[in-house]
Amino acid sequence: MPWHARLELDYSLEEHRSVARFRHEGPLRILQSLYPEGDAVCHNVLVHPPGGLVGGDTLDIRVRAAAGSHGLITTPGASRFYRSEGEPALQRTELLLEPGARLEWLPLEAICFSGCRAENRLVVRPAAGAELIGWDLAALGLPNAGKPFERGALQQHIEMPGTWLERGRIDAADHRLLDGPLGLAGHRCLASIFFVAGSPIARARREAALERARALIDAHALRDSAGATSPTGEVIVLRALAPVVEPAMQLLRQVWHAWRAELWQMQGAAPRIWAM
């Protein structure tokens, strides 16, 4: 029997405190709200007890940040797409931000096991004045464990409707894409971090954020396979390829700290679950 799970998470600002409330169906829920930065930012951990998805499984996640609220969402571990002989496994995430809201979407990586049929879809809808920092990491197989990505496919979709769309399909049979110099060049981790705003970002802010990101890239081991750009006035994005997850995650966390400081004048208070 496939698992079908749904989570609705709402942030609101109540007496200068960001408060999270959620409703769920099936095995998908939020742990206790934490405030390591004080009342203004509510940290939450999204938990999927089964630990992975197989063919026919669906996770639907909808997050709404009300005006003035600030939520940060992460996960306790990697999500996993396991082997499927039939229907694809699907994770759909929609992030809605009202005017003046801030949201941070920072899940750990998605591991695509050989033989999976996976689709990971993220849609961000920020209102004017709202801003989001988010990231997406996909790992193809477990190369260090001797479990390469030999069969199956992953379809990724990241979208800000009407403004920005990144959509691609990676098939394990497409060796030119996986190993060619114009494709993944043998790398098995794809990573992106993005800053998305509901209003055009002032040119000086965009340039400052890009400079901070590029300085970190230049000093990092992934400097030859990473780059930062601003495809539209509302989006800043850094993309990186890595042989495994760890160096990509290290770079994304560095950029997250830098963008928080540059764009929001906030120190990066790492979620406690990352240290476990």
For this entry, give a set of tags.
276 residues, mainly beta, globular
Describe the structure concisely:
By secondary structure, the chain is mainly beta. It is built from three helices and 17 strands. The chain has helices at residues 175-179, 203-218, 245-264; strands at 4-14, 17-25, 29-30, 42-47, 58-65, 70-74, 79-81, 89-97, 102-106, 110-112, 116-126, 131-140, 152-160, 164-171, 189-197, 226-232, 235-242.
Question: Can you walk through the features of this model?
Answer:
Helix content is 15%, strand content 45%. It is mainly beta. Strands 3, 4, 6, 7, 9, 10, 12, 15, 16 and 17 form a ten-stranded mixed beta sheet that branches. Strands 2-1-5-8-11-13-14 form a seven-stranded mixed beta sheet.
List the helices and strands and how they pair.
Layout lengths: L3 E11 L2 E9 L3 E2 L11 E6 L10 E8 L4 E5 L4 E3 L7 E9 L4 E5 L3 E3 L3 E11 L4 E10 L11 E9 L3 E8 L3 H5 L9 E9 L5 H16 L7 E7 L2 E8 L2 H20 L12
Parallel strand pairs: 1-5, 4-6, 5-8, 6-9, 7-10, 8-11, 9-12, 10-12, 11-13
Antiparallel strand pairs: 1-2, 3-4, 12-15, 13-14, 15-17, 16-17
Helix pairs in contact: 2-3
Give the biggest beta sheet: 10 strands, mixed
Rg, please? 18 Å
Cα distance, first to last residue?
32 Å
SS summary, helix count: 3
Class from helix and strand fractions? mainly beta
Low-confidence segments: none
Order of helices and strands: EEEEEEEEEEEEEEHEHEEH
Strand content: 35-45%
The outline comes out as globular
Average pLDDT figure = 95
Helix content: 10-25%
For the secondary structure, the number of strands is 17
